[in-house]
Every structure is written in C-alpha cells, then in structure tokens.
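REVIEWER CHECKLIST
Item 1: Sequence provided? yes
Item 2: Single chain? yes
Item 3: Sequence as submitted:
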Amino acid sequence: MTMNRSRWLKVILYAILVLYGMITVVPFAWALSASFKPLSEIIAGGVNFIPEHFTLDNYNKIFIQSPLFGRWLFNSVLVAVWVTGLNLLFNSMAGYALARMRFPGNRLWFFIILAVLMVPGQITLIPSYLILKYLGWLNSYQGLIVPTVVNATFIFMMRQFFINFPNELEEAAQLDGLSRWETFVQIVLPLAKPALAAQAIFIFMGSWNNFLMPLIILSDQDLFTLPLGLNTFKGQYISYWNYIMAASMVFTLPALAIYAFFNRYFIQGVTFTGSK
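Item 4: Structure as written out by the authors:
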C-alpha cells in the first residue's frame, strides 16, 4: 500500500515537472521557429512550429545587412564580462571582510547592506543618472559598468558563505606564512567556486538582459547593447518580428553558454555550501 502510494506520488510529480517543462519550452520553440519565417507568415497568426516558408533571410539581415548588430553584440559582451568580473572580485572581498575581519563599523556596514537590499533599483535610476551626468559619463562604457560593479545581494550571499567556511584552512595558511590577501586569493577563492558560479550566472544574466539602465544612459546607437538594439526593430506602425526573433535567438546563446559552463557548481552555490 505504501509502495503504491509512493509510486503514484512520483508519477504525479513527474507529470507536473513535464507540464512545467512544456510551458517553459514551447514559447522558446515557437520563437526559434519564427526566426526562420518571413514576416508575413508570423503576422498571419497560427502556432505552427514548422515554418511553411523556411528562410535564412532574417539572420542574413541582422548579421550582414544590419551594420550595427555586430557592434551591439560586442557592447553587450564587453559590458557583461566587465560587470561580472568586477562583481565577483568586489562582492567576494566585501563578503569576506564582513565575515572574517573585525573592524570598527563592521556590524554597521552589514546593516547598511541589508537596508540597501530593501531599496528597489528603480528608485536609484534618477540619482544614478544625475551622478553620471556630473561625472561626464553619460553615453559611455564606464557609465554602464561602474554603477553596477558591486551588488548588495551578492555581498550578503558571499558573507553567508564565508561565515560557514572552515577556520582551520585559514589558520593553516597563516602558519605557512601567507598574508590575509594571499590566503584569500590562494585558499579561500578556489574553494568558493560554488558560490562564485551562482553569483556569476545571476550577475551575467542581469547585466546581459539589462534594458532600463542603457535606455537612460545611452543615446548613441554605436554604444547600444543588444536589448536596446532589438528595440530599434520595432516601429510606430510595424514591428519586424522576424528580425526580432532571429536576434533574440542569437541573444540567448551567450546566456545558455554561461549557464552550461557553471552548471555543475550552480546548485551548490545557491544552497551556500561548498566547504571541503
């Protein structure tokens, strides 16, 4: 009786997971199919997943005939890589300092970071714009990168990770003559790969998909990132959904690559484990 009940619960669970998977995959599959359709077939309606008039003209348009698409792709990669790399460094350093080092104002800074977590990002858009205008960083790469090189959420995350980090390893490193910085770089960071991987995925995705900040800061189309560039395919009277779908497929590839690369560390990092 108990075994049958357990089997039925497992069947129900798998059915729910399959249903959720279909709900998630079907829109992506339709977008992939639409990227190979002419505009007339897309706006005609229908949910056919196999294009009636298969074409590569959409990809030809965005890669060859659109002179700025390659530049938008480069801008997105440049900004996302810099933002991710600097966040991994600064958030980890701040989290380690809050978890391991005792200095005046330690608890005060921790409470400030908790307070920042409660502030919606949209509230800081106007102050950020005014500061960047004062510095002369509007319409520039540094205007996109510098305001996002630290993140209170991931400082808190790294602090929680380092609190559970075994003290014995750091004590052994000190006995071997390593300084605090050498201990952090050579011992702590290599063992923090799960937390760093989870952080890298979330930060890269946030920067890669960011639309609002570039919209406010940038005015030169040569500096547009992909989310902002895709918006140029939409007009007042017509939207070129065939080009948007093709560009969106290209847009998803780096994010999928990042997730695939860090996937083996992802679950460990989310649960804040990783002590060895």
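Item 5: Key structural point noted by reviewer: The chain has one domain: 60-270.
Item 6: Recommendation: ____
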